[in-house]
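Protein Record: Sequence and Backbone Structure Tokens
======================================================
Tokens: labelled as protein backbone structure tokens, with as many entries as the chain has residues.
Question of interest: how does this chain fold, as expressed in backbone structure tokens?

___
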Amino acid sequence: MTFVAETATQTLNLSRVYNASREVIYNAWTNPEILGLWFGPHSHKCKVEKLEIREGGEYQIRMIPIVDDSDCGGDTTQDSVCAGKFVSLKADEEIVMTFDWIENGLEMGPTLLTIKLTDTDNGTKLDLTHEKIPTTEAAEAHKGGWEGSLECLAEYLAADS
């Protein structure tokens, strides 16, 4: 597997605890109908164009701007499309995938995204690690986007419970 550059050293780490089971959260990431309901920050809605849940399977998600203001960069008047492949899947525990922008995103090449789910007394802890980001600016743009996505996931889970 080749990443944008071996010198791409920026890593983003975010954690959040949800009042939901690991199974429910894993399903929210791997079921295309559910993923389309929450993925992305509030400034976008998304359309899951491809989601092949298997190691080596591909995914593609179109981010459609719904407001003119965004914390995640890119042209706010155009759709952005992220895509990649699943590196490994451990049901209800971990998702590892490549992540790249193929339309209207930062030109950074494939990066690596890991979602880990662990039980807590209050539900499930989600740890998101986004590695191989080439610049500090790109890491900051992705931090805003991922924080928004994790907030939207919390809202989806609260409404679904």
User: Anything to note?
Assistant: Helices lie at 22-30, 32-38, 136-160. The longest strand covers residues 80-90.
